[in-house]
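User: Fold this, then the next.

Assistant: Folding the first:
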Amino acid sequence: MALRDDQLDVLRVGDAAYDYYRIADLPGIDHLPYSLKVLVENLVRNEDGANITDEHVKALLDWDPAADPSREIQFTPSRVVMQDFTGVPCIVDLATMRDAVKALGGDPEVINPQVQSDMIIDHSVQIDKYGVADAVEANMDIEYQRNGERYQFLRWGQQAFENFRVVPPGTGIIHQVNIEYLASVVMTKKEESRNDSSDSSAKTLAYLDSCVGTDSHTTTVNGLGVLGWGVGGIEAEAAMLGQPISMLVPRVVGFKLVGSIPEGVTATDVVLTITDMLRRHGVVGKFVEFYGEGIANIPLANRATIGNMSPEFGSTCGIFPIDDVTLDYLRLTGRSDEQVALVEAYAKANRLWHDVNDPDYVEPQYSEYLKLDLSTVVPSIAGPKRPQDRIELAASKKTFEETLPGYVTEKTAREPIAVSTGFRGDFDLNNGDVAIASITSCTNTSNPSVMVAAGLIARNAVAKGLKPKPWVKTSLAPGSQVVADYLAKAGLQDDLDALGFQLVGFGCATCIGNSGPLLPEISQAINDNDLTVTAVLSGNRNFEGRISPDVKMNYLASPPLVIAYALAGTMDFDFETEPLGTDGEGKPVFLRDIWPTNADVEATVAANLDRDMFVADYMSVFDGDARWKGLDVPEGELFAWNPDSTYVRRQTFFDGMTATPAPVTDIRDARVLAFLGDSVTTDHISPAGAFKASSPAGEYLVEHGVAPKDFNSYGSRRGNHEVMVRGTFGNIRLRNMLLASAGCEVTPGGYTYDFESMKPTTIFEASRDYIADDVPLVIIAGKEYGTGSSRDWAAKGTAMLGVRAVITESFERIHRSNLIGMGVLPLQFPEGESAESLGLDGTETYSITGIAGLNSGVTPETVHVEATHADGTKTEFEAVVRIDTPGEADYYRNGGILQYVLRNLMK
């Protein structure tokens, strides 16, 4: 009898009975970390004797904490969640796959999500209107005008595909909706007949909730004890179609939290501290698990805030186990009593319950150990361009003054610039001034403590007569309508309104780059005088060029600190010694004078947040408003593509696809398209924000009759490959050093040197020349290539530019796997080597041999790279092949993961 059959048991919860797979008595389970126990249950439940066997389960039970990852397993997520920026191309691909199946003589309806798949439309709201009472409705109207085509397409998908639901615009942020409503911790489903006539069969299976999402901050759900992480849209599509995710059993870092947060410190300060610690420690590709008696005192909202920042740590997940805190949160957010009882019973029956006072409790073993005493955390911010670059608030002014010279150029004005506006009056603008102060993003808006703290600091500021500086664009974009409910109930929204922090929408907004335009007069003053202005946001991403094209320096901060910086108006400010203003009596008012106490925050949350709010707001979560219901939706199993659409177009990935894959070939005489440095993010590779008419994407849209005011953003146009390929490597802060190597000026943005036409040009135009001449392309980069969001177009666009291989010093996890998913070969320089140490500058031609060995079923550990310089000399080295699992090798052999899945479904 297979282990799967042997472990099937019945769990009784009150009057209900459920089948479940019992892992509590498996040998070795006691000492496993919680996260690996979740994987054990997943393997046992999905065992099929081929891809998943008893041996895989045994290997996981025999996990050696000290060992480096080497054993491959297949993880089968229970759910897939998507946001619209990365989710729309998923549905475009599924619709295109239906066309491809029909073209190959199959049944198009074989293409359907096989697991529950939910899309939350949260990334398309842009802050066009702000600081006025009707901002939220005005921005929603504009959102529908801009995105009508996309939304029609998604409504078609909601009707055409099984197991696919859409949460309409204006509801909230994907991760907040996930923890407040979609996630169930323990899921149930009706079972198919098992030819089992015994009374032991309960006919309903209970099993662990798990998910992957097309957003890297899917790890927010880790706070609930649900194992999940961000994947590229490419992997997500495969998971939707029933494909397991191939992974190596990871090292697990045990992180013990002790003590309590001191007065004046927020959950945001805690996560910035943890991010700093874990980045320094090094956790890329590892699981991080929080444990110990101290976590019983950590509210679920704080756990979710910590889990949310896992991509900023670099880890795959940052998870907390199930305990009483989990159950309390499920009750608060409106889950049924039956569901809460099931979660408790299941967790205890399968030894997943965390209670260090239980006499049977066994402390897990971990690969590495870290510890943080929360009482040592101090107020912090992070920036100006990476979330792990934490700065203690007390040192923020000094650090800013030390950093600013790196952003100042010969063109930068040294004296204040006079600005006159109709909306905000007249003022002077200086380097360091805060142009954007935005309370936004899933990191913080799911946490009532920091949102209420922001409301209370606003109340205290208003009472003292303080106002934000007139040049600051202020905004509040909550993660769910529940936030608006409790702020309104507490009367705090009135105080936020008085400071210009009116509601602007329910969505990701500033953190994804949808900060909207600055006042034209401010934007002109910045650009005419090359001013270095700043943004402060309560988000998790502050990469260069991400927040606003006018803003060079971006800082992450807690919601109350966002308000504090709006009041100060500049990053060049010491909150300890400089007053924010004066009160009615002319006395100076310092930040400490308006900062709320922890007790005030807790009391306000307790008095104004209740279960009924969640029940009411999520009762009709999939229905949408009149705008959504009024969309004209096409019907049919195949989508009726509009050839004139500039938002949604049939993909070209499957054009000319054959039933069997062509052999893998070596790469000969390739040219370098981009020669890049360290920490190149997916936002550098595939920006999400606004773009200009002079860019290749802008020129394309103008040619198709779209006015620049209607461009929208790259993120909103991810359903149109023509726009996205033109925007690949188009971030305005990207520096392609190939230009310098070719003797040209390094123009920031999507530019390169074209060795076919022997001139500098855009990356897109150069790629067209190379493709026309059948010249393969490579990318050369440094450390941490592909950090940031799980952005599938960073890989799709790379492939469509004709890039065959990317050679770096190291990769971030998601982007590496996405490259393989698009048939692009990820390679690393030999340990300790780099392009610089090998004397490479990107002007060489590259031949990469040995990868054709994949045709015989063997994945080579290294391939031979021969770089030929202009003078005919050669540099040769062995590059490490970063195809890490047999499953990834299958994807690469098929030209990509979607081609692999489609061919299998056709069989």
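Now the next one, as you asked:
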Amino acid sequence: MRSEALEDGVQQVRVKLLEQERTRGGLRHRGAWLATVAGRVALDAHRARQHERGLAERIRHRDPPAVSDQGRSAEQRELALVVAQALEGLDMEVRRLVVLRFYADLSVRQIAEQLDVPEGTVKSRLHAAMRSLRQRLRETEVV
């Protein structure tokens, strides 16, 4: 796994170098630039691993529903099913944004970085997705 992560990091640095040379026509201080970019790529990978560990830890420590919450738990399962069906009606890219934001608990900035799009694009697409979901849920009389 570590070897794959290292290879992925090296590949990301290579791609960034090619993009930089293509758009700017070269670098004056190539070594310094490479060191900076490699450090940032490593830091991003470290943060992503920490985030994944945090999610796994939160999931592991969730308490099972109490017996007295059986009715509420059934309602929650039904609501989750209705929301999942509404999500299926969204475009794949928009659905991906909603899942990253609300199920993977990524920030708008993290989503923008992961998808390589501006933060404003993520925000506007999420807003449109939520409006569409709200409409779908109103049609099923959930909201």
